[in-house]
Model the fold of this input.
Amino acid sequence: MYRQEFLIKLVDIIYANLGDENFGAKELAKAAGISQRKLSHKLQNINKTSVCRFICETRLQRAMEMLQKEDVTASEVAYKVGFASPTYFNKCFREFFGFPPGKIKKEGLDNPRELNPVKTRSHNLQKKSFLLKFGYIFAGILILTVLYLTISYFSKWKTQASGASSSNSIKPEKSIAVLSFLNNSPDNEEKRIDAKPTKDLLAYSLTTKGGEMNLKWWATRDDQYLNIASNFFNEALKIDPDYLEARAGKGLTYELLGKYDSAMIYYEGVLRIDGGNRGALEGLGSIYLKTNKSDSAVKYYNKQLDTNPKDLWADYNLGMVLALSKNEVLQGLPFLQKAYDLGGSSQASVLMNIGFAYFSIGEYTKALKYIRKTLLLEPSWCGINQDYYNILYIQGKSDEALNFLDSIQNFTTCKRACDIMRFYYYTLQRDFKKAEGYSKQALDGDQNEFIREDRYYDIFFNYLLQETGRKNDAAKGLKTSIKYFEAEMMKVNGVQLSIIRLKLASSYAMLGENEKALDYLSQLEKFGLFEYPITLAFPGFDNLRNNPAFKAIVKHIEDQRAAVRERVREMEDSGELNL
Done:
């Protein structure tokens, strides 16, 4: 009985974090209150499976339920249940259930047992049926044939690789890369392979394995998977140098490693063969965006849209870079509108960035609407819960903001995020004793780790130190923060860059270096204001309140935002926007 209750508890935890593609074995063990090693041992004893496999199968069970009961596509379900790639989702689904996810809708089946004996949530605690086992055995016989050829091929390669010098290996680098949105539905996959096929089964198998390693990186952020992926793609390209899927995969691997020059070589090579290749166009746009070359990003996202006019992610990418990276909200919102109409209304990332676009111009009612919609789809996204609180607080609804934190703490995994926001709240209320209590609670005994994870915290904490007589400690902390943020400016773009400028301005203001503070504030007139969690009302700016230059900058920013809000209302009245 205990074993069954234990598995049910694990399933419930996974369901609570279903949309988080980064939720893996480490996170499950932490949420379950046991070590990762102990969790692995328990699952092996109870269910004869690994932790990662258990999480994957639980995601697949939920995907089956969604496909049966909801009006959604397989690609939409893939993202909802935490798969970063619909292609990988399709592969896992087919392997687990014995048929592709698209067959559920196509054949209108209400009961998956019509196709294969499938485990539902209650069956997840039982053994697989004989038929399913037989299917695996049969598939295994086929796979063994390919595996034999693969092992034979790799025997020589592995020997060479083991003796290779470190200078020839890829050295992992920390990356701020974000996975591009890829439309990897089965139909789209077939079209791309047909455009430049490979006739070699081993090249195809190696490329598939490389893609799986890239996806494992997303689950773990462990760069060793990118090294393995690179080796798979290299071997595939030795067999078939013109195989586009392998070239694009190699490009993505380099992109995730932060080796953008190398990634661009592969992406551009793909485009020389197939000028409309969606993955390569999106990859180049993504790299230019990450390297603060927004105009070039727009160029490639426009090409992506030209070749994929019905793809919501093409419109989304273009709308996002215009509204949130170039501060051209009026130009970006129509593309976000189209993405929303093409199916983005059920995509959390689309809803979130529509909310951010409205927030950036001070349209708080609309911003709150779309952040709320995001939370309905992804209640476990702690950062979005913080955004919701922040929008309420900025509007002066401090009691409502605090009540919101109270309302979510008991049924989400965001307790620490809630403690952080309470720390902000009580710091701004000048209840420093209570603020410091929530600070210690959030830090949970490991300040250095926390500071690395959330640098927003330290501005407020240094303000608390300054206001409670610990000015030397505050000054030291502010100088450390400034050094960190000025280095980070070279790595981020768009909204994050605006946030950092505001944080630097407040840090310099608290140190009394007003000219530097005003310089960073003046940059927001051009690049846009995004108040999170520092706002222009932050008390760290109090020594600048009566400064004529400060007043002029604040007035100009608000006049700009008011003009954009007025134009947005005109677009809504004319029917150009309907968000």
Summary: DSSP finds 29 helices and no strands in the chain.
